[in-house]
Amino acid sequence: MRLYETGFLISPTLSEEEAEAIILQMAEVVSQKNGKMIKQEKWGKRRMAYPIKKAGDAYYVFFHYEGGPEIPQELGRRFRQMDTILRYLTLNKETQANVRKKKKAEKRSKVKEPAAEEETAESLSAKGQSPAPAEKKREEE
To answer: Full-prediction pTM beyond 0.90?
Structure first.
């Protein structure tokens, strides 16, 4: 199961009740596809950075959920069928554990790289060979 975040903009021409009905329909898709809704964020009606379909405002809604790849596909299919959805975007979120592992791996590789360069210069000088000109400059500095 992966973590996803889907954000979508609902047309401002709808009433609050109609917008709420659309949000409920979309939330049901997650539960129908055996997903787990983690959080719903309803930002309400806000001004957009630029007009979309001649609308300057929109209802902003964000879903944070966990499930398989069929959930964002179904949400996207339904969003495309509705004229009242101005825009939508689904992101595949990484868990905190994965982000931490990546950072540790990057730090380890950065620490090992300078040590490996020193070893090659030392091994060449021990064998009686002269290191490359770039390595000589580093040793002199």
So the answer is: no
